[in-house]
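Per reviewer request, we include the raw input and output of the structure prediction for the construct analysed in the revised manuscript.
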Amino acid sequence: MRDPKVTSRIMASVRNRDTKPEVALRSALWRRRLRFRVRTKLIGKPDIVFPGPHVAVFVDGDFWHGNAWRVRGLPSFDAQFERMNNPEFWKAKLETNMARDATVNSKLAEDGWSVYRVFESRLTEDLDAVVDEIEQLVRGRRAAQVSTVASIDTSRNFETEKPCRGQ
């Protein structure tokens, strides 16, 4: 077992933003001419936000969001806690994180947002495929918005309306 002070120091050094996989994803999206925001006040604090098409992207760490057991080739979620100090605490912590992720997903969906979550390990394995999926999602939602706006009000005759003054 590891000394709790060592564990504490390691956990304190874990970054919650601007991780290497996150920066790699942002760079790849930027090269595809997809423009986004990285700091918003949306619930859950998404890592990347496309405000127009309402797409929120989360880059989730494998350990913190419950995927580490798969990456490590363990037989189950519970198996990763067998050799840890204070396994009850860590299991409860990760389960709380996963429940919060589900709540954030549903609240954003209720508000009309499309949520895309990706584990860091997947970004490391296949960045291009992830970028393709996000690009397709963003461009698809933009196209849907344009077609909806175009069909909203086609009855107005802008040629005969007087322009607004003072604006």
